[in-house]
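Example 3.2
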Amino acid sequence: MPAKTAKKTVTFATLAADHGEYLAYIASRHENAPATAHPATAEPNVLVDLLRESISFLELCHRWNEAEELEPAVSILAAALEADEEDRPALLRQAEKSLKYLYDIANDLAMDLGDTL
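Structure, written as C-alpha cells:
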C-alpha cells in the first residue's frame, strides 16, 4: 500500500514567495501601475491587487487567454481573504492551480517586450 503524501501547506506567504515576482513584473508593465512593496513582504490583499492589475494589463495587450487563465485566482484569493482559518488552505490550494502559469506568462511577456526576467 503506497504511503500517503502530505498535502502541501499553501498560505498567502507561500503564494507570494512562489509567484509574487512574476505578478509584480506583469503588473509593473501597466502604465498606471501603482508602486507597491514586493508581494512577498506585503499584506495578502496586495497579492490580490497585483493579480487584478496583471489581468488588466494582459487584457490591454490582447492576451485574452493568459488573462483568462488567471481570472479564477482573483475570486478564489478574494474568498480566501474572507474565509475562516479552516477553509482558507483549500481555497489557497485552488488559487495556486490558477497561478501555476504565471512564470510562463511573465516569461513570454518579457521575451515579447525585450526584457530579461
